[in-house]
Amino acid sequence: MMADPEIDDTLDETLDDSVWSLGIYDAHCHPTDTMDVVPEIPSRRIRTLTIMATKAEDQELVAQVAREYPDRVVPSFGWHPWFSHRLWDDMKPGSSGVAISKKEHYQSVLTNEPTDEFIETLPDPKPLSQFIAETRSFLEKFPSALVGEVGLDRTFRLPNPASLIGPDDKKLSPHKVQMDHQRRVLEEQMRLAGEMDRPASVHGVGAHGVLFDSFSSLFKGHEKVVRSRRTQKRGPHDFEGDEDSDEDTGPKPFPPRICLHSFSAPPDFIKTWLNPKIPSTIYFSFSQAINVGYGYERFTEMLGLVPESRLLVESDLHIASIDMERHLAGIIHKISRERRWDPPQTVKTVGKNWINFVYGETASKALGL
After folding, report:
1. Could you read off the pLDDT of 196-240 as tens digits, one per residue?
2. Which of 21, 208, 233, 320 is most exposed by smallest CB count within 10 Å?
3. DSSP 9
4. DSSP alpha helix (H) spans, 149-298
5. How many CB atoms lie within 10 A of CB 113?
6. 297-336: b or e for each residue (b if 16 or more CB lie within 10 Å)?
7. Mean pLDDT for the chain?
8. Which positions make up the signal peptide (predicted)?
9. CA distance 62 to 32
């Protein structure tokens, strides 16, 4: 969920049934935002929908859809940065765990001190520890589930409640969620993903450096050893110091695999995220709605920097209508033109990558991919 993408009825690029039959996987979508269309999922030609939760209201909805369509849906449970202000951080190091008032909480986590009237329209904050416990329970019930959608967003402003909007008022308030609070909510969810050995789908808008720094702090002490060419030539056992942090065992405070969804950072960040010392496998997902529909001028450059094995596609749509198919067909055609592949090659490539991202490379090898 980057922004609320408009449904584009003008997309006319299609894919043959033979291409759909190869298996097209939507790496990131939100059909539970429009539950009355969810029954259309079985009629969609998309092999699997990776469905994201974002806030308190839709965690159970995602579970419900996953139970109803187990062969068509991989669920993801998480709390989106747009709603992170609704969580009270009782897990912060040094926290007494004693609840503070609703007013104190929102004044501490929102920018441009909100008025009492504005605060009154907001829900009572939920303890972060309670949400983490609930998410752990969902992950235990769904062994293939991801953690998502999570992340950081520097641009999002809370909407003004309808009850407070006058004829001359703007729809968006001046209030954003403090970045430190967003980071704390992200960090605890990533620690849970590491504990449960689950991949994560990550949102990042306007905070690309902060997002990378947040993960770098979690990676610290677990970085992969990158041997120089000189030591590689000697052989694996012919140099001093045979211990290798790649053999680090036990739960990590970060996910084993990360999808940076509808990736929109400057292209140089792709190189940053591909640093071989990073102990998570990083995937980059692209969508018609965000990466093409919003006219990113550097999309071609971005795509050229992503390794073939780290590329995913998504719709990022909030409705399981025919538009999902149109959007996926659009981004597949775009990637095919840019990479000079034919659509079947693109579909096979991103399909194998999706299986690697969700289930790990062992699963794809078992399938002979």
Report:
1. 999 999 999 999 999 999 999 999 999 999 876 665 555 443 333
2. 233
3. T
4. 179-196, 208-219, 229-234, 268-273
5. 12
6. eebeebbebbeeebbbbbbbbbbbbebbbbbbbbbbbbbb
7. 91
8. none
9. 7
